[in-house]
């Protein structure tokens, strides 16, 4: 992910000391746009190598971060491939770094790989099915995606004039529906998975997670994994993802999915238009809004047919 809060080796070494690790090496991660993330090679007891990830949060405060960390712990206990936060010697899973909340986690095996094919889409569909079937009885309240969408309505004036009315109607219609109660990731883009020998090894970045309809989560994934550079649907990939999802015993409301597809595309178009957290960052920074403008228009046209 991009780095908005640079840290020196001395600062990182002091962070690791709180968890009983020593700093061996590190570098700033380059994927994502919201937080500052450092990939760390640490040393544990008896100089045991310990790959770690430090995330410094640029917009969430400590209380807002708490339910997400609780969620990660619960999902890790259910054997989903997610990193659970580590605790300091005093038992804290949150610390403050450069005046901002921060979390240290184990770095799960694998690497980012942005190639995509039908087999990878099948794996994504199966993983989403597992996530949507997870037990959430002990969840702390998570922010609502509906609230985020309402916030994004304030950015509709950033759209081209010809798109504004249809976009406003689409959001109004979607927000009029009651929210679902399924745990969803909300951001399953290719940069939020790690791969090891062609298999998913880690699902990352749960900071858009919430409870809503599973079709919305499917729509977010389909809009990234199953379209080409022009925003057109790649039918083979879409079929693979949805078939694998259904193959895990999950059902899909086709009508709701067809509506969720342009809504999810519009959401990420608007979020990209809203801009990065900072104008000065190391790494990726903000993503191109036009990518989701193309996807949105394709999805809206198909929904309107």
Automatic annotation (TrEMBL):
Signal peptide: none
Keyword rRNA-binding belongs to the record: no
BP term (GO), one: threonine biosynthetic process
Aminoglycoside phosphotransferase domain span: 28-246
Pathway linked to the protein: Amino-acid biosynthesis; L-threonine biosynthesis; L-threonine from L-aspartate: step 4/5
Entry's EC annotation: 2.7.1.39
Keywords, comma-separated and alphabetical: Amino-acid biosynthesis, ATP-binding, Kinase, Nucleotide-binding, Threonine biosynthesis, Transferase
GO MF entries: ATP binding; homoserine kinase activity
Catalytic activity: L-homoserine + ATP = O-phospho-L-homoserine + ADP + H(+)
The keyword Nucleotide-binding appears for this protein: yes
Enzyme class: transferase
Similarity section: Belongs to the pseudomonas-type ThrB family.
PANTHER family: AMINOGLYCOSIDE PHOSPHOTRANSFERASE DOMAIN-CONTAINING PROTEIN, AMINOGLYCOSIDE PHOSPHOTRANSFERASE DOMAIN-CONTAINING PROTEIN-RELATED
Full protein name: Homoserine kinase
Organism: Alcanivorax borkumensis (strain ATCC 700651 / DSM 11573 / NCIMB 13689 / SK2)
